[in-house]
Write a structure and sequence with these properties.
Blueprint: H1 3-26, H2 33-54, H3 59-66, H4 72-93, H5 97-118, H6 125-145, H7 150-167, H8 173-197, H9 208-215, H10 217-232, H11 237-243, H12 246-258, H13 265-298
Length: 299
């Protein structure tokens, strides 16, 4: 199997796992989201430390001690990631899977806007049209919901900012996640310790399979991330751009057809506007890269 094929399989696997994660969270939806978040942080750190030990990737720790400035961007990215995780878990456990999927449909276009604002990137005309269509779709859904779709917007905002911070960070996927979990570990551990001291902790007090799923939150977090990191290095950016829609599509289908969340024809209109915007943006990007490659070969 070529590296390109193995990369595509890994990337598809990562996005498929992310798309199917609502099923995982539904198994522990009786546990408060904030407690699940704390467990996710603790067990994610344990899982990443095991992986670092297996792969003997410890030299970067010494570099951090000699260059603490490297650590600073991860303080911010850790906080943003924690907020994103909490919002996502809350959405899964409070029957807002469809709205969460909307956030990840919006995210690529929101990331484009962040690139324009902070990285001085320039958008072509069709890209601006795509962003405008997505904005109209969000405004329509806000009117239809009768409220701002805060879950979707929070997920898009936090994941977009997180991506921007990690884009300029110096550590790779596994090392970066480990450092972020180190930042969040102590507050999470203190919270869980206080919770258990008051007799309100879930671990050891809930059903056996719920205890198992709490411990597995670390593996459920890190596995798709590592698959994505492997795939992203081996396939073109254009392929990643298309494959990223697997996750919110699966979430959307789970929310509507498996968990039967309310989804009216009026809301479908808003989603269609956003899907058209995504299709326009993705198609324009593919066409632009092809024209550029052809022009490069002709030189």
């Amino acid at each position: 199997m070529t590296e390109g094929n193995s990369g595509r399989i890994a990337a598809v696997g990562a996005y498929a796992l992310w798309g199917l994660l609502p099923i995982f969270w539904k198994f522990i939806d009786t546990i408060p989201a904030i407690e699940i978040l704390a467990h996710r942080i603790v067990w994610s750190l344990a899982f990443t430390l095991i992986l670092l030990t297996i792969t003997t990737q410890w030299s970067w720790i010494l570099k951090l001690r000699s260059s603490p400035a490297t650590y600073l961007p991860f303080l911010a990215s850790a906080v943003i990631l924690g907020l994103n995780w909490y919002t996502y878990i809350y959405a899964m456990n409070s029957d807002h899977i469809v709205e969460a999927s909307l956030g990840y449909f919006i995210n690529p276009l929101f990331s484009v806007v962040l690139g324009v604002i902070f990285l001085r990137e320039r958008l072509r005309r069709l890209q601006w049209i795509a962003v405008g269509l997505a904005l109209i779709g969000v405004m329509y859904l806000t009117w239809n919901y009768g409220r701002i779709p805060w879950i979707a917007l929070t997920l898009a905002l936090t994941f977009g900012i997180y991506g921007l911070l990690r884009k300029t960070a110096s550590l790779g996927s596994l090392r970066g996640l480990t450092l972020e979990m180190m930042v969040l570990f102590l507050p999470a551990l203190i919270f869980l310790t206080i919770l258990h001291s008051q007799g309100n902790g879930s671990l050891g007090q809930v059903k056996l399979w719920e205890n198992v799923f709490l411990i597995l939150t670390g593996a459920a977090t890190a596995t798709p991330l590592l698959l994505f990191a492997y795939g992203a290095k081996r396939i073109p950016l254009a392929s990643i751009g298309i494959l990223q829609y697997i996750a919110p599509t699966l979430q959307f289908l789970l929310g509507v057809f498996i968990y039967r969340e309310p989804f009216t024809g009026e809301r479908l209109v808003g989603f269609i506007l956003i899907w058209i915007a995504l299709g326009l943006y993705t198609g324009e990007g593919i066409a632009f890269r092809r024209r550029r490659n052809i022009a490069t070969r002709l030189r």
